[in-house]
Amino acid sequence: EDKVVQSPLSLVVHEGDTVTLNCSYEVTNFRSLLWYKQEKKAPTFLFMLTSSGIEKKSGRLSSILDKKELFSILNITATQTGDSAVYLCAGAGQNSGYALNFGKGTSLLVTP
Amino acid sequence: NAGVTQTPKFRVLKTGQSMTLLCAQDMNHEYMYWYRQDPGMGLRLIHYSVGEGTTAKGEVPDGYNVSRLKKQNFLLGLESAAPSQTSVYFCASSIPSGEAFFGQGTRLTVV
Description:
The complex is a heterodimer.
Chain A: E1 3-7, E2 10-14, E3 19-26, E4 30-38, E5 43-49, E6 56-58, E7 61-66, E8 71-76, E9 85-93, E10 100-102, E11 106-111
Parallel strand pairs in A: 2-11
Antiparallel strand pairs in A: 1-3, 3-8, 4-5, 4-9, 6-7, 7-8, 9-10, 9-11
Chain B: E1 4-7, E2 10-13, E3 19-25, E4 31-38, E5 42-51, E6 54-57, E7 64-67, E8 73-78, E9 87-94, E10 101-102, E11 106-110
Parallel strand pairs in B: 2-11
Antiparallel strand pairs in B: 1-3, 3-8, 4-5, 4-9, 5-6, 7-8, 9-10, 9-11
């Protein structure tokens, strides 16, 4: 059975801190690992990772995949209060129409 | 630039009532999905479709039916609603092996 596990489940940091969110996965016929940000409403796409060791960056956010260890991390540097959200990790395999198998998410709160 | 649109956004049902949730996408995506999101459970796949006229069961399909008569629409039906189906429902669409785009969600309460 496919499984995606995120840690920690919740995190409180001060503005300016750097955070690392973790995601481990076991996905049959693995194709990609995706990160989403969810603020009250629909998840919004952050990154899709398919190859090991290649860092993807967008502003203060970055992510990398390790396909040997079945692991991904999402880093956020110089956190801002606007980064407060639930961050979702999902694995996609070639089964089930590439449907995303989500972890339970990491709830991040950035305090002023 | 609508993307993925869900209707309705909110609904309250009585136990035993039926309803249909509509998902429409304007990105010409082949694949469409229905998820439910419950506190502490993450997003769980209900049903999915890899093309017009095709549907398949996901992780939690019991109590739901779906139809994909047109490529742009994916309908989720509840024939006899139960309190356990109280949840937030998200529709998503994608190209094969691409990122999924989500609708804004439907908050359903069954009393």
